[in-house]
Amino acid sequence: MLKEALLWDEFTGKSVRCQLCMRKCMIDEGAMGWCQTRLNKAGKLYTLTYGRVSSLSVSSIEKKPMFNFFPGTVWLSLGSLGCNFQCHGCQSWELSHCEVKNDLRKTSYMSPEMVIKKAKQNGCQGIVFTYNEPTMWFEFVLDVFKLAKKTELSTCFVTNGYMSPKALDMIAPYLDGFCLDVKGAFMESYTRIADVSDINIVFSNGSDAKRKFAIHVEVVTNVIPGYNSNEKEMKEIAAWVFAELGKDTPWHLTRFFPYGGLKDVPPTPVDLLENLRNMGLREGLLYVYISNISGHAGLNTYCQSCKKVIVKRKEYDEVESKLIEGRCSYCKALIFGRFAFKG
Ligand code: SF4
């Protein structure tokens, strides 16, 4: 089902300029944008992926990963097709870099109302768009979030942060959680990892999400040996989180596993992740996590005041909380995040 896209301008003749993400594709009549999710038909831009669900599950929010955001609750997770990045080690390459037009037949249609109903039927805390870049089906995500905000459901977005400022302005009023993938601090790393050459927007969107729109932000960095794993680069990211988002913003260091175009790169050594976590804490961040290692102590949330474990995570869906109304049950310190269960 074609649906007219929201963010685009007429260009010359029947060409259009997509304004959804910072690639700002100029698209001739009959052609698609870089991400293959947008088609110029007779001088108008359409989205191909409205309501086209490729993946759906009811799973813990910790899997995103989001740890200081309703820990231990289950969320309806949805994904579609397409991406505006090209990460060589992408774990969902089959969804993100498929032939979108051809592979639509492998998806199922859901209306925004059906998504809300499914989330409620399954006792979910909220709805999270993940698996592929949510900006790719922006119009649908926006409609779902608008409906969700008329209910008690919370909303979350797992993103590479490359949407245009206009897109963020439109979706931010309906967004509770923003899980931002920061792939590096330097352009060179982003180019090697994701084939992207302008990264300022990732940082300014992260900062706007937190400061301008008061969205709960958590930052995720997949530490890829030889790509972004050096301490200098990681220190830059930690310093940016501290300065722009605040010391109470969670930073997740995830373990890389070989996949796709990076199948010859070894998994991230555990001691490297532990050293980087210590570095992040030394830089002043209060919540630095290690993800993708089952049972690791770096999965737990520690009270920043008494240092006791206040949320213990063995696996992502084995979560034991010692929080009482957002406070440490041992010393009563206020823990940063969103905790009250609304459902
Ligand atoms: S959303 Fe797709 S078509 Fe639009 S600018 Fe980004 S890559 Fe290009």
Can you walk through the features of this model?
By secondary structure, the protein is α/β, with parallel strands linked by helices. The protein folds into two domains: 3-47, no CATH class; 52-328, Aldolase class I (TIM Barrel). Helix content is 24%, strand content 23%. The protein has nine helices and 21 strands. The chain has helices at 93-96, 100-103, 112-121, 138-148, 165-171, 187-194, 200-211, 231-245, 270-282; strands at residues 3-4, 8-10, 16-18, 26-27, 38-41, 44-47, 52-53, 55-60, 74-79, 108-109, 126-129, 154-159, 177-181, 216-223, 251-255, 288-291, 301-302, 309-313, 319-321, 323-324, 327-328. Strands 8-9-11-12-13-14-15-16 form an eight-stranded mixed sheet. Strand 18 (309-313) and strand 19 (319-321) form a beta hairpin. Helix 3 packs across helix 4. The longest helix is centred in the last third of the chain and has 15 residues, at 231-245. The radius of gyration is 20 Å and the shape is globular. The two termini are 33 Å apart. The mean pLDDT is 95.
